[in-house]
Amino acid sequence: MIELLDPTRELRSGHMVYAPRPSSLKGKTVGLIENTKYNSDRLLEMIGRILVDDYGVANTKLYHKRYSSVPAHEAIITDVRQTCDFMIAGVGDCGSCSSGSVLDGILLEKEKIPSASIITHVFVNTGRAMAKQWAVPDYKFLVMQHPIANIPEEELLAKARAIVPEIVDLLLMAPEAKAAA
Amino acid sequence: MNLQVVDEALAATREGLEVAGFSLKLGENNGRLSLTIGANEGACEECLVPKSLFLQMVRDEMAAGGVKVDGIDVVYPVDRKAE
Prior knowledge:
- The structure holds 2 protein chains of 2 kinds.
- By secondary structure, chain A is of the alpha/beta class.
- Chain A is 43% helix and 15% strand.
- Chain B is of the alpha+beta class.
- Helices cover 43% and strands 24% of the residues of chain B.
- Chain B has 4 helices and 3 strands, in the order H-H-E-E-H-E-H.
């Protein structure tokens, strides 16, 4: 039997309510949900290492999705909710995996886990469409230059270093709070 | 329907499809816009988003480009395989 998974749903209007943000990453645990796309795991591990070395994160936990195009399965969501203080999902460098990573961020925010979803610039419209379908058109996700697959190690590391400040910013201050500040 | 204007409005969708190995062909059928996705060799078919999400993207891009059409029909590679 073929199982068809469709992570979309009917469009409704709404407003993103972000999880409460701690004031610091120090001593915290960060979940990294990689979407199975080539180099996603390496890029997230690089980001995790920078967060440990430069921002005082205590440890990171790498999770592997079963399918890139749908949200992380329930076991991942449960473990992140129970053991992590923050979550980073990605890296969306195709259509369905971008929408899937954006949805991971939306779902974990709803579970009160401050989250950051990363996709590449070619798929911004895909991520935005998924946010709309989940009634949170204003949901903020992070964007890096495409591609991430088939690029040299040093280029991958440069992308990781470039996006870490944006990740930290998003994990520690929700966009609505930043706009009000 | 001015397909060139539609094509310009859908530039981002086309770029996203092409980096995953697909092509986008525009057409008009009884006043409706038809969007046919073709799979090139090595295309990542699981990278295609569900049609409802694809339509959401297309409608948003056309609205941003000031393009209005009466209806949109989308044909994915899997649809042609099923014929």
